[in-house]
Write a structure and sequence with these properties.
Methane Monooxygenase Hydroxylase, Chain G, domain 1, 4 helices, 83% helix, Spectrin/alpha-actinin, Dystrophin, Spectrin_repeat
Length: 168
Amino acid sequence: IHETLMELQQRQLDSLRSWLTATEDRISRMSEPGPDWERLRVQMEQHGQLQEDLERQQRVVDALSNMVVVVDENSPESAGANSCSFSAAYSQMEDQLTALGERWAHICQWTEERHNKLRELNSRWTEVRDECQRQGAWLDSREAQLKQWEVNPALEMGEVLNRIRKLQ
């Protein structure tokens, strides 16, 4: 029964290792945020998908991190030479689990940092876009005002000074 359990757990570790490798490859192909708002929006969508995948994989990671190996000291496997091979296999499995846990933690940390960076850039981009729209509206109103003055030229110096103040 221990061999079957170990084989099952090893398959789970192998599956997680493959998933982590694929995810690390996916991350390595992600470009730096930007350079424009449309690309940033696409990157935010891709990042959201990555976060969803991490949340789904979290159950597998939790199950593996709670993996418990039970050794029956009365079983024939735990006596003699087999005891050493089982102990080595368990130790190897623990080492694999530790290494996979470190990779998982690194992916989670990178994902959180990128999320914060994307969110901050999106916020700043929105501020810049809003300010550009505000400035554009201000320029449009000044242009309309100048066109109106062009149609109705000022004849007196006082009126000219008044119009200059309005432009400012």
